Amino acid sequence: MSIVQEIQRPIAAEMLLFEERFKAAMKSSTPLLDKITHYIVKRKGKQLRPMFVFLSAKAMGGVREETYTAANLIELLHTATLVHDDVVDDANYRRGFFSLNALWKNKIAVLVGDFLLSKGLLLSVEQGQFELLRIVSNAVKEMSEGELLQIEKTRNLNLDEAVYYEIIKGKTASLISACCEAGAHSATEDKGKIALMKEFGMLTGIAFQIKDDLFDYGDAEGIGKPTGIDIKEKKVTLPLIHAINNADAATRRKIIRTIKKHSEDPKCVAEVLEFVIKSGSLAYAHARMIEYRDRALEVLHRIPDSESRKKLELLVNYTVDRKK
Question: Using one digit for the tens of pLDDT, what is the confidence trace for 190-206?
Fold first, then answer.
């Protein structure tokens, strides 16, 4: 049994029913749209976000009809943002498969993203789940703000660690936080418990993003060869920020100039990768990741022990131990 299957064990039946409902929610009478949404469903990822929703609900009292609505809404809006991200990034692949924009071009991909967004909104409105709609819509707003802040700071290669955390709280952690908050909201009216799960999700999401940062550099534990994709895209990651901020003035100027002017040159990217790896900044970023993981677990331990809480602990550890 894989670790993901082990995490899903107490919610296996709920996840199967969710998948059926998610497919149904994506159905359309427009043949082209139906063909594209079928392509999306067949190439879904590990579905970590619905797992956060269902486990949070079970930990707070149990899965209800509202929990399925929450999981569907989260996954519809998340999928919409991924489709739009691929258009913005001009990406041709998603999880090893061709992206929608690569197969059907940008205009169709944007319209499909809009369709998924509207289906999620309609789902919550039709069921009168307005608090759920508020939770998830706020996450989408924060994701957009986080991405725009990253674009703004990337232009100037802003290397402020506080700004970095502001960016990732929006672009990554806000959605995982919304998963946990929405799952808890579907199971309890206790505002204190809902707030705890929201905080737990935020801290977990930050650890999740730092792990993604580390993937760009590889490590000794099997992540693989460094890719340098973030450097090519001039994205400010935690290892890069720490390495530059702790370099001497001349080296700092040289690295910033290289990233700004030569990020398309594989040799220059390799030089920046080597600089970061030799700086000890991967160990620093790893330590910060573990710090956020531990803070997330501390918050989680404020709720009563249960099988679902144990699986949430396992899921948090999985986010920092995963190999891809």
Answer: 999 999 999 999 999 99
